[in-house]
């Protein structure tokens, strides 16, 4: 019978852990205070798809920095393997993985985050992405199989969406991207309803339940 590991859900407190990384030891609850965290796992060092993905995170790190977000990678490899891989990629491509990568050789973090999915692989983490807000709450989760790489544009898009939704208290429509109109929440009381009726020039009104605006 396959082993089953817990999978944190949206809205859960991110499970705390202590781990050794390529940037030194960290504890999640003390890591990147007042920042967002994108925690992502890859199956193994020195593998082709993982190298393309880690390169994608590294080359677009300035965009994550601008979004007040720290990157935190993970695989079930040793710290020595991580260091050798980081150096190899830098030597071969000029790209430097300048963010911490967890050495999860004992699989403790992978198990806490449901990154081990036995029907896919017993000892390699699937391609999981966890979006963790500054309160250390999990806000969005992505899981990919071992053989399909992630989409960096989508990762940045949903991170921007989460932050904009929080700041302006709005929702985001299908295929939203930064700069598009957002969805206005429905009125919660009579005053809001009357304001909406008397002054709806700032919204694109389809009907009372579907209104969009620019921000």
Looking at the overall shape, the CATH architecture of the largest domain is 3-Layer(aba) Sandwich
CATH hierarchy, class of the largest domain? Alpha Beta
CATH fold-level topology of the largest domain: Glutaredoxin
CATH 4th-level superfamily of the largest domain: Glutaredoxin
Oligomeric state of the chains? Answer: single chain
Give the N-terminus to C-terminus distance in angstroms: 52 Å
SSE class: alpha+beta
Q: Order the strands across the largest sheet as they lie in space.
A: 5-4-3-6-7
Major sheet characteristics:
5 strands, mixed
| Low-confidence segments | none
Number of strands: 10
Mean pLDDT across all amino acids: 91
- Tally of alpha and pi helices: 6
Summarize the structure in words.
The protein contains six helices and ten strands; from the N terminus they run βββααβαβαββαβαββ. The strands form three sheets. It has a five-stranded mixed β-sheet with strand order 5-4-3-6-7. The chain has a three-stranded antiparallel β-sheet with strand order 8-10-9, with no helix packed on it. The chain has a two-stranded antiparallel ribbon with strand order 1-2. It has two domains: 18-151, 3-Layer(aba) Sandwich (Glutaredoxin); 169-215, no CATH class. It has 215 residues and is of the alpha+beta class. It has helices at 48-59, 61-66, 79-93, 108-112, 152-168, 190-198, and strands at residues 18-21, 24-27, 36-41, 69-75, 101-103, 127-132, 138-144, 182-183, 204-207, 210-213.
């Amino acid at each position: 019978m396959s082993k089953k590991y817990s999978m944190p859900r949206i809205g859960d407190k991110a499970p705390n852990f202590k781990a050794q990384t390529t940037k030194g030891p960290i504890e999640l609850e003390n890591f990147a205070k007042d920042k967002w965290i994108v925690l992502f796992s890859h199956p193994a060092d020195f593998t082709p798809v993982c190298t393309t993905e880690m390169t994608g995170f590294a080359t677009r790190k300035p965009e994550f920095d601008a979004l007040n977000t720290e990157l935190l990678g993970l695989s079930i490899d040793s710290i020595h393997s991580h260091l050798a891989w980081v150096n190899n990629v830098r030597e071969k491509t000029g790209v430097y993985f300048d963010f911490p990568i967890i050495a999860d050789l004992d699989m403790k973090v992978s198990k806490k985050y449901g990154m081990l999915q036995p029907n896919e692989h017993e000892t390699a983490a699937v391609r999981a992405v966890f979006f963790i807000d500054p309160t250390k709450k999990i806000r969005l989760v992505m899981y990919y199989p071992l053989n399909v790489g992630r989409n960096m544009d989508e990762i940045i898009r949903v991170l921007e969406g989460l932050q904009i939704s929080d700041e302006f208290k709005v929702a985001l429509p299908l295929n939203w991207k930064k700069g598009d109109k957002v969805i206005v929440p429905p009125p919660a009381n009579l005053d809001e309803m009357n304001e909406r009726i008397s002054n709806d020039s700032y919204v694109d009104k389809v009907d009372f339940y579907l209104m969009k605006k620019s921000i």
